[in-house]
Amino acid sequence: MVKQSGQGRLPARPAGVPADERHETANLVHSAALRLLRVARTRDVGMDLDGPRASLLSVVVFAGPQPVTRLAAIEQVSPPAVTKVVTALEADGLVVRERSATDRRVVLVTATAAGRRLLERGRAARVRAVAGLLSGASPRDLATLRRAAQILSRALAQAPATAQGAARRTARPSGP
Q1: All structural domains of the chain with their residue ranges
Q2: pTM for this model (two decimals)
Q3: For 68, how many CA atoms within 13 A lie in the half-sphere containing its CB?
Q4: Which end of the chain, N or C, is surrounded by fewer C-beta atoms within 10 Å?
């Protein structure tokens, strides 16, 4: 159920969620993050990457080289699923597999220069799409949103790795 307010449509609180300020705010942030991501994803068409490939490329561009097992944990999928995506990205010249300099048993997935350029173009398009949504916002509202984004970024940085992976797939505060 969705309620109307002077500021637009507000999502109803899901059953079983407490009716306190923190949970009500979380409900609003969750809904806005999903809708915002949908708007941002409309700009991904020019990247010629499906969601799993764009997501995994984003991780290796912004978090640096990662072993497949770590990528699987971040993306919350199985290592064989990550291997398939890595193979596709590698075939496109967007990532390479390299042995770790510190532990030769570990293979790291690393973004290529082409992968970084493609992701930066995609991120720029997403940022422009979000900025377009904010074109009518007042300076005060922009400052409030900036502060809220900083608060969320801090909370995400303190979250356990599994929660960060889930957050990364939905909100992407530091990625595309």
Answers
A1: 32-157
A2: 0.71
A3: 17
A4: N
